[in-house]
Amino acid sequence: MTTHVVSCLWIILADFDPNRENSWIYEYANYDTDEQVTRPDIYMTSMYFTITTITTVGYGDLSANTPNEKFICVFMMIAGVIAFSMASGALTNYIAQ
To answer: pTM, whole model, 2 decimals?
Structure first.
């Protein structure tokens, strides 16, 4: 559920950013060409980016470009590290018992 909410926030942020020409969505959708990317494609790309960021994989094929996107990414990265730390601690505790 969290990844869905963050993915939607990531799309909304790019749609309403005054620097839209520099945002990830502009680069992904290739607005310079006639080929239009559908909303489900944009959502899946946003979900993909959110999951790779939260899980600390970060392939680098998509990145935050505007200051607002970078601000949101910082919180996604911190949340991912905290979530994995808690999961690792819980698993270690379970194994130790």
So the answer is: 0.76
